[in-house]
From TrEMBL:
GO CC list: nucleolus; nucleoplasm; signal recognition particle, endoplasmic reticulum targeting
Lineage: Eukaryota, Metazoa, Chordata, Craniata, Vertebrata
Identification of the protein by name: Signal recognition particle 19 kDa protein
Main location: cytoplasm
Keyword Nucleus: yes
Keywords assigned: Cytoplasm, Nucleus, Ribonucleoprotein, RNA-binding, Signal recognition particle
GO function terms (MF aspect): 7S RNA binding
Family note: Belongs to the SRP19 family.
Organism: Oryctolagus cuniculus
Protein's cellular compartments: Cytoplasm; Nucleus, Nucleolus; Nucleus, Nucleoplasm
A single GO BP: SRP-dependent cotranslational protein targeting to membrane, signal sequence recognition
Gene3D superfamilies linked to this entry: Signal recognition particle, SRP19-like subunit (3.30.56.30)
Length: 110
């Protein structure tokens, strides 16, 4: 297996993962919410997250059959995760306003 430093940041398995639970204001931090309740939205879907990321101009990949490990509800509306490319092939940022996962999550649903 190749060392992580030798792999390109543009490979799809190096994209950051965003689960709907990260942005859900109905979840607690223990249940997986990663942003303040004031910036979170009610029951986002992976498709909605994909649409927002695409509108911002980021390269996204929707994985419909993935589930967040802390999600106890196995309904279809809670399925899915979005992979988002933050860095290009050469290691530079795709968009300067999103240098890492946290600023991306905070800015996604303003």
């Amino acid at each position: 297996m190749a060392c992580a430093a030798a792999r390109s940041p543009a490979e799809q398995d190096r994209f950051i993962c965003i689960y709907p639970a990260y942005l859900n204001n109905k979840k607690t931090i223990a249940e997986g919410r990663r942003i303040p309740v004031s910036k979170a939205v009610e029951n986002p879907t992976a498709t909605e997250i994909q649409d927002v990321c695409s509108a911002v101009g980021l390269n996204v990949l929707l994985e419909k059959n993935k589930m967040y490990s802390r999600e106890w509800n196995r309904d279809v509306q809670y399925k899915g995760r979005v992979r988002v490319q933050l860095k290009q092939e050469d290691g530079s940022l795709c968009l300067l306003q999103f240098p890492s996962r946290k600023p991306f999550l905070l800015a996604t649903y303003r």
